[in-house]
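Deliverable D2.4 — example input (structure tokens):
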């Protein structure tokens, strides 16, 4: 069984306190290596700050993030944790690998003439168009067994109300507004002000929940599916105690917007929105006869009336939709099949909503905006892979500088369990809220 060496940790921690190593200083001119830039989706810790001259999280063009080893001894502890995880065949360690970022080793980068060691990890937001990210530190107790009394007292004061109520705290997050696409960021100072009600409100902001916009069921269920698996892991693992470790939660607001639009179009798909827009005939016979009606203008030229034009357009729409429906229901062998592999769009959505036109009962400008949104959704559906459609919500366990073997190897990590159980209860609340989840 591979574990973190507690004796080595005690020695490292002691030296770390003596060394009192500060964050690496850098000149104001960044001068980062080619293809590497500050991590824009960073929401807590490791800030890249020119004014304070601190090195923070970086991101490479290959979808990797670079976490700096700010305090060498703590960094060495986290590196050891990841490397043990890579080689261990212990069942607990193998299961844990499913919940942590992919580890690519370490690298030394010359940043402003200084050689800095970085851990290379998989970026949880890689491939997301509008990444919403939240850092949730799990556990009422965030100080490890080697912490001094002064360190313990300091940690107890941080995020005190949230940790006391829920056993976790929100250290920062960013979210894209589903309606406007505006990016909003909330840092650690905001997180420290949250009381019990404030934590719930922060989750609502992050998940794009408001009185006008109920919870998205697809988003909530996907989040819970990850959280339940991690919860199950902690209900069985007795190998480690995780202190000051976080869950990094991410989802793509662009995909969320797609599901919200699908919800808004449900009445259109079932109640004949096209009929109100185009005012079609109620019978195929009368519609066909109108196609033969022509009127003559003053010059004797034959023209088609506006009513005839609208009905012709309607007939074409019905024909296209019927053709798609028939082709999707039966293959060449006469067996039933499904046209929509992703399960997120339908012939009505892809055709009917794109065939709007101006009329006396519809606002032309609004229709144009909706048509553009529909086209964007349809294009996204056609160009996105099945994996991208399924993998738009992700959760990783991160931050392992304070992971220790248990004092009692038969006991569970109750500190972590309390936090994740309460987090799950809050998220589950959105499925049964009075606002009715989408």
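Example output (designed residues):
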């Amino acid at each position: 069984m591979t574990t973190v060496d507690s004796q080595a940790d005690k020695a490292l921690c002691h030296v770390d306190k003596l060394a009192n190593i500060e964050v690496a200083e850098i000149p104001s001119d960044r001068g980062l290596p080619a293809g590497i830039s500050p991590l824009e989706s960073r929401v807590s810790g490791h800030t890249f700050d020119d004014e304070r001259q601190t090195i923070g999280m970086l991101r490479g063009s290959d979808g990797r993030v670079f976490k700096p080893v700010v305090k060498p001894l703590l960094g060495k502890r986290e590196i050891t944790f990841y490397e043990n995880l890579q080689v261990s065949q212990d069942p607990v360690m193998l299961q844990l690998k499913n919940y942590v970022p992919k580890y690519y080793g370490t690298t030394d980068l010359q940043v402003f003439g200084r050689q800095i060691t970085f851990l290379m990890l998989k970026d949880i937001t890689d491939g997301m168009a509008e990444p919403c990210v939240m850092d949730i530190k799990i556990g009422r107790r965030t100080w490890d067994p080697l912490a001094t009394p002064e360190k313990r007292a300091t940690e107890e004061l941080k995020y005190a109300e949230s940790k006391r109520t829920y056993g976790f705290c929100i250290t920062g997050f960013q979210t894209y507004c589903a309606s406007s696409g505006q990016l909003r960021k909330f840092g650690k100072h905001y997180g420290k002000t949250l009381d019990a009600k404030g934590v719930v409100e922060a989750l609502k902001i992050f998940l794009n929940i408001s009185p006008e916009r109920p919870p998205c069921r697809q988003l909530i269920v996907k989040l819970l599916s990850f959280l339940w698996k991690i919860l199950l892991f902690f209900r069985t693992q007795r190998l480690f105690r995780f202190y000051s470790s976080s869950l990094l939660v991410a989802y793509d607001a662009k995909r969320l917007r797609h599901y919200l639009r699908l919800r808004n179009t449900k009445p259109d798909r079932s109640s004949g929105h096209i009929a109100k827009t185009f005012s079609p005939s109620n019978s195929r016979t009368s519609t066909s006869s109108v196609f033969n009606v022509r009127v003559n203008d003053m010059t004797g030229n034959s023209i088609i009336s506006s009513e005839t034009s609208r009905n012709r357009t309607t007939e074409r729409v019905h024909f296209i939709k019927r053709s798609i429906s028939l082709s999707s229901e039966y293959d060449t062998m006469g067996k039933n099949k499904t046209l929509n592999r992703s399960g997120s769009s339908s012939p009505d959505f892809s055709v009917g909503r794109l065939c709007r036109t101006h009329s006396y009962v519809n606002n032309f400008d609004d229709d144009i905006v909706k048509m553009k949104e529909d086209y964007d959704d349809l294009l996204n559906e056609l160009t996105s892979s099945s994996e991208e459609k399924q993998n738009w919500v992700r959760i990783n366990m991160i931050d392992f500088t304070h992971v220790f073997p248990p004092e009692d190897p038969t006991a569970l990590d109750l500190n972590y369990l309390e936090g994740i159980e309460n987090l799950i209860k809050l998220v589950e609340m959105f499925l049964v809220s009075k606002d009715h989840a989408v």
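The two ends are 45 Å apart (CA to CA).
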